[in-house]
């Protein structure tokens, strides 16, 4: 029985996925040669490929660039008050709305910046907040 179980486990975890894994590895190495990835530790490579899974939300607030706004404007104060009361999941949803991903890209968190801009609409009560994920701009009506 032990030999049967060992052979079955080996088949399920090794032999049955060998061909798909080899195809994946060949394609991956064609686009990302292994010599380029050897400089990373496994943890660093994970951050480069997946992004940061945890975010320092206070640092994110600190790094924001304001256009047509000041940090002391009531709209900005209200935004950050509400934002910091959100659950972690909702904050990541906002990040997804802003950037297209719920993670900060692989470079250092200290350098991640986005802009909050007043779209300067005539009737801001009729305009919803929008985002330009390519430019990392959050349009927040007053």
UniProtKB/TrEMBL annotation:
It is an enzyme of class 2 (transferase). The active site is at residue 134. Its EC number is 2.3.2.26. It catalyses: S-ubiquitinyl-[E2 ubiquitin-conjugating enzyme]-L-cysteine + [acceptor protein]-L-lysine = [E2 ubiquitin-conjugating enzyme]-L-cysteine + N(6)-ubiquitinyl-[acceptor protein]-L-lysine. Keywords: Ligase, Transferase, Ubl conjugation pathway. Coiled coil: none annotated. Pfam families: HECT (PF00632). InterPro entries: E3A/B/C-like (IPR044611), HECT_dom (IPR000569), Hect_E3_ubiquitin_ligase (IPR035983). GO terms for biological process: protein polyubiquitination. GO terms for molecular function: ligase activity; ubiquitin protein ligase activity. Residues 1-142 form the HECT domain. This is HECT-type E3 ubiquitin transferase. It comes from Grallaria varia (variegated antpitta). The lineage of its organism: Eukaryota, Metazoa, Chordata, Craniata, Vertebrata.
């Amino acid at each position: 029985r032990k030999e049967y179980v060992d052979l079955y486990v080996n088949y399920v975890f090794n032999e049955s996925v060998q061909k798909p894994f080899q195809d994946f590895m060949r394609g991956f190495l064609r686009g990302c040669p292994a010599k380029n990835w050897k400089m990373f530790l496994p943890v660093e490579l994970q951050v480069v490929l997946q992004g940061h899974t945890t975010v320092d939300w206070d640092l994110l607030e600190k790094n924001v660039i304001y256009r047509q706004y000041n940090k002391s404007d009531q709209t900005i104060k209200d935004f950050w008050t509400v934002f910091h009361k959100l659950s972690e999941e909702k904050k990541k949803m906002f990040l997804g709305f802003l950037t297209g991903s719920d993670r900060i890209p692989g470079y250092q968190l200290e350098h991640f910046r986005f802009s909050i801009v007043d779209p300067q609409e005539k009737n801001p009560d009729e305009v919803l907040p929008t985002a330009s994920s390519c430019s990392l701009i959050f349009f927040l009506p007053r």
